[in-house]
Amino acid sequence: GVDGSETSRHALRFAIDLAALHHAPLQVMFCWQLKDLGVIEGYENAIAPIAVGQERAERILDELLDSVEIPTAGIESHAFHISAAKGLIAASRYARHLVVGSRGLSGLDAHFLGSVSKQIVNFADCTVTVVH
After folding, report:
1. How far apart are CA 13 and CA 19, in angstroms?
2. Which residues contact 13 (CB under 8 A, 6 or more apart)?
3. Neighbours of 12 (CB within 10 A)
4. Please, what is the angle between helix 50-66 and helix 6-21, to 10°?
5. On the CB side of 113, how many CA atoms lie within 13 Å of its CA?
6. How far is 94 from 65, CA to CA, in rounded Å?
7. Secondary structure (DSSP) of 72-117
8. pLDDT tens readout for residues 56-75
9. pTM for the predicted model, two decimal places
């Protein structure tokens, strides 16, 4: 699971190495909501349609994948319009291993907003690695 942050780049590098070590395919997922995409050009003062958000999410994912060295075979990427915790927990039902980054919320933010990685660790149906 990636979100475009520097921590998710580290998680992606870890996942690439892990997949290569086990000769396993790699599914790179970016679960997004409109608030996660920042300001979308042309929609600075309005809510962008989901299709426009999907295009933006796919560009973010492509930029992230372009920023790391990836072997050519066995990697697929997907952007899904769903909250990160819900999407990645659902995906864990079909995965052997789930790798996510930790943004490191602390204090009141962590208490009230919760932590995606904490939810995944608690509810995933497969092995989970949280990369800091």
Report:
1. 10
2. 68
3. 23
4. 60
5. 13
6. 22
7. SSSEEEEEEES-HHHHHHHHHTT-SEEEEE-----HHHHHHH--HH
8. 999 999 999 998 887 766 78
9. 0.86
Kindly state the tokens that stand for 25: 């395919």
Residues facing residue 76 across a β-bridge:
27
**pLDDT tens for the 132 residues of the chain, in order:** 999 889 999 999 999 999 999 999 999 999 999 988 999 999 999 999 999 999 999 999 999 999 888 776 678 999 999 999 999 999 999 999 999 998 755 555 555 446 888 899 999 999 999 998
Other CB atoms within a 10 A radius of the CB of residue 108 amount to: 8
Q: What was the pLDDT predicted at 36?
A: 87
Tokens linked to 53: 């958000």
Q: Kindly state the tokens that stand for 91.
A: 């995906």
Token pair 């939810």 in the structure block, residue: 119
Question: What own/partner pairs with CB < 8 Å and gap ≥ 24 does 33-36 have?
Answer: 33/81, 33/82, 33/83, 36/3, 36/84
